[in-house]
Design goal:
Number of strands: 9
Shape: elongated
Order of helices and strands: HHHHHHHHHEHEHHHEHEHEHEHEEE
Structural class: alpha/beta
Largest sheet: 9 strands, mixed
Number of helices: 17
Radius of gyration: 28 Å
Strand order of the largest sheet: 3-2-4-5-1-6-7-8-9
Length: 428
Amino acid sequence: MVIKGCFSGEDNAIEALAVLEDYHFVNEFYRALYIGVAELMAAGRKLTPAAITERIAAHPTYCKFENQKIREAVVEYMGAFVGSWEMQKAVERMLAKRAHRDFLYNYSIAVNSIENDPEEADAAIEMLQAKLLELQMPKGAKKLVHIKEALPEVIHEIDATRKGEIEPGIPTGYKELDDLILLCPSEVTVLAARPAMGKTAFALCLAKRIAVTGSDVCIFSLEMNKKSLLKRFLSMQSGVNGVDIRTGRLNQYDMEKLRQAETELNQLGIHIDDTSYTTIAEIQNKARKLKMKSKKLTIIIDYIQLIQAKKKNSENRVQDVSEITRGIKIMAGVIDAPVIALSQLSRAVEARQNKRPMLSDLRESGSIEQDADNVMFIYRDEYYNPESEKRGEAEIIVAKQRNGLVGSVDLLYHNTQFLPKEYSREAS
């Protein structure tokens, strides 16, 4: 069908050439014809039986085909009619078939690799997971589009957003922060801070508040185990001190509050994976399965530097982190969900008089700043200045926003919780 389409109209040939290579064709004769089409189109020549025959006859590999056979095939195909929609579907089918063949080929390689060296099992399985994800990704190339074709859809989306029919993004649950930034599908928001600033605590606060809005939240915790995270959630929801929960210094009233918190948390769509040794391919697999069951999904990763790169024992950690952050960005697009990825900051912060984080503090960690759509920092002045006027407060700094403004929002920080400023400490 693809070859017939190429000869039935120039637009169809362009459709195929934008996506397909000669190796997509298993049949050698069809591959030869396609090479002839590609070469003639590149030279700006018309697709005629004589021209195609001439091109194939000059090819070192495919000159074996008889000229008469080539001419007869071209004449037959030029007489066929293949519509643009049929051509598009034929190209998509060919891409899918090639992808499946490649997967089966890689599967056989992986099996042989494991049989010959069982220690290579993890690498082989990771490779197969990556190939499986490729199969699930949308096929085909995006076309050039004139703005008059694209603008009506954008105007409709803007109007629907104005009317409240479409949500512009997933709210963070903090009103002042929502006025500055929203979590949009396919975007990566990096949340970074120095140790003890409360990265995980703020991420969990975001998770709970996002879940309250009706979005499922998937937390990949590479540092803390599931039980530790759940104890934090219970403390957050019940108001019972986290230290008392860990040490068991609780009275009956505390236990009643914890059981009530359990009931409330059970209603939220929060999912936790505490696999400490994981890769982007594994994270994407799990998140994609959840997205298939969920209308809205937010992914939280704690944290970037603990994710395993494809090439183990790499001497260049900056290169590893660059590979990981690029993988996170691709994952956000494939799953079409916002991703909040926690990150460490360089020690350069500690050497400055003003210890508020800056984007340059991320640059030593590969391409984090480049791949992130948004970057948020956490800064608590009382950590460095015990007598600070901002004791009990945390500054959330939006240092980068690809599609919006930068700025900062002050929140209350109490008992590892981040609360809107309208809350008093007594209410917490």
